[in-house]
Amino acid sequence: MEIQSSIFGISSFGIHNPKTPFFPSKATPLSAPKQVLFKTHFSLSSNLSFTKQTLKVSASVAKVECEIGTINIFEDGLKRKIRKKNLAVFVSGGGSNFKSLHEATVNGFIHGDISVLVTNKPDCGGAEFARDKGIPVISFPKLKDGSGLSSHVLVTALRSYKVDFILLAGFLKLLPAELIKAYPRSILNIHPSLLPAFGGKGYYGMKVHEAVIASGARYSGPTIHYVDEEYDRGRILAQRIVPVLANDTAEELAGRVLHEEHKLYQEVVAALCEDRIIWREDGVPLIQCKENPNLYM
């Protein structure tokens, strides 16, 4: 809606984005307004009236005046701080999704930092990229030559980096139960098909796209899901549809799916770091829309 884009579009106001977002909550008016810098989108069911210099919003939960550069809050406790999250990314290869996530943390789209990279192939492209960016690299699992960390030591190491969430980005090893128990509902994976189709042990990389085309499926696309103790069986969090074209090769389909992977993973991790993941009573995770918490992605 055009009115909403004017209200919530940061470029419309030329507003500087600080590091701490806020959201409206129920409270009583104060005698003097608070001034708070505008960070992120929020939604109010409101009647809107415009003047040349000020947008006034009258709502049941608060009286708010949006001015250029600031928001004057007339209610107590409106500002809710969201702590910047620490992320660990696990890779086994070139790490294109890792690089995409790193870019999104640097430009502020994701309210988090990649604190450490974990890999079972210390010489892979993802590990080299991490070292170039000054991100610590951990080798896992422990190998016969004595290199790498055991499961127990890995958990200890991740806690030393104060990791909040673990993001798998092309990591080809099954995670140990010890790690999954240490980070409940905090480990995500991205898979290049619409799970539960074409998932499980042996379905990775180009093998997935070859199987999709051979099956005659008309649609594919990335799935982001929570990780449990089986390959690709955790609760699905988000998916995006990519059409399979009549004369597709596996490489062509893979390229289009990967393009959507990058965008979807950024959006989901942004929601994760902004505490916008909620769990339905039946155990299904949902992502609240940033513009309207009553809607879901």
UniProtKB/TrEMBL annotation:
<keyword id="KW-0808">Transferase</keyword>
<comment type="similarity">
    <text>Belongs to the GART family.</text>
</comment>
<protein>
    <recommendedName>
        <fullName>Phosphoribosylglycinamide formyltransferase, chloroplastic</fullName>
        <ecNumber>2.1.2.2</ecNumber>
    </recommendedName>
</protein>
<dbReference type="GO" id="GO:0004644">
    <property type="term" value="F:phosphoribosylglycinamide formyltransferase activity"/>
</dbReference>
<keyword id="KW-0658">Purine biosynthesis</keyword>
<dbReference type="GO" id="GO:0009507">
    <property type="term" value="C:chloroplast"/>
</dbReference>
<dbReference type="Pfam" id="PF00551">
    <property type="entry name" value="Formyl_trans_N"/>
</dbReference>
<dbReference type="InterPro" id="IPR036477">
    <property type="entry name" value="Formyl_transf_N_sf"/>
</dbReference>
<feature type="domain" description="Formyl transferase N-terminal">
    <location>
        <begin position="85"/>
        <end position="269"/>
    </location>
</feature>
<keyword id="KW-0809">Transit peptide</keyword>
<dbReference type="GO" id="GO:0006164">
    <property type="term" value="P:purine nucleotide biosynthetic process"/>
</dbReference>
<keyword id="KW-0150">Chloroplast</keyword>
<keyword id="KW-0934">Plastid</keyword>
<comment type="pathway">
    <text>Purine metabolism; IMP biosynthesis via de novo pathway; N(2)-formyl-N(1)-(5-phospho-D-ribosyl)glycinamide from N(1)-(5-phospho-D-ribosyl)glycinamide (10-formyl THF route): step 1/1.</text>
</comment>
<dbReference type="InterPro" id="IPR004607">
    <property type="entry name" value="GART"/>
</dbReference>
<dbReference type="InterPro" id="IPR002376">
    <property type="entry name" value="Formyl_transf_N"/>
</dbReference>
<dbReference type="InterPro" id="IPR001555">
    <property type="entry name" value="GART_AS"/>
</dbReference>
